[in-house]
Design brief:
It is a single chain. The protein is 52% helix and 14% strand. By secondary structure, the chain is an alpha/beta fold. The strands form two sheets. A five-stranded parallel beta sheet has the order 5-4-1-6-7, with helices on both faces. It holds the Pfam family DUF218.
Amino acid sequence: MSLAFDYSGFKTLLLAAMLPPAPMLLLAAWGGWRLKRGRRGGGWMLGMALALVWLSATEVAGEWLSRAAGQPPLLKPAEVDALRGQGDGAVLVLGGGVRRQVPEFGYARANEITGERLAYGVWLARRSGWPLGFSGGIGWTATDLHQSEASIVARVVATDYGMPLRWAEGQSRDTRENAANTLPLLAKAGVRHILLVTHEEHMGRAMRAFEAEAVPLGISVRPAPVGLRPEGAISFDDWCPSTGGFERVRYVVYETLAWWAGR
């Protein structure tokens, strides 16, 4: 009898152990154990772990980590306006997850990440005059999802924004498949320039995957990042733990791990 390897379960467990706050809690436990045993360094380890737990939930740490990873440049509104009139371009939004059931609506909806990308993608499409596309299927760990992200988002775009999707690619399970599955569709439609919409933390990995597929097809890809913070807009509150800060730090760490894993 052979046992099938549960990739999604393994990935979920591995991420839980590597993403904040798990490493800090393990360091705190180790430091506490050493301190209790009277071994050297236990107090320093425990103090460092507590400081890192605090920082890992702040906007400041998220911004530092994001800049260290290499933030993409802002796409300015004037640059978007300059694209109007070019007939061989498209705006492509990458999926970031959906909520399988939203009781107040009675059906599946885009989650916060996908919703933010989608709002910007619709704005870009209207301002540039370029058609809108979306790429997102059922991710490796989305075991409870029975509809692709693309099919759910197509309905959201039509009902909420009154704009149909020109392309809705729903077979991709990760960023590499987003590029491999979507770019041939766009090339076949005569698209030669793409505004790629995703969060700034994810943009480096997305650009690596898309440029590898786009160059042989003669397509240029331009980043259109979501979630950038204004320059120099750090306040005292940004040093304090917050839900937004914690989510951002985890997102940057996740994307860094995914970059090195090549996914």
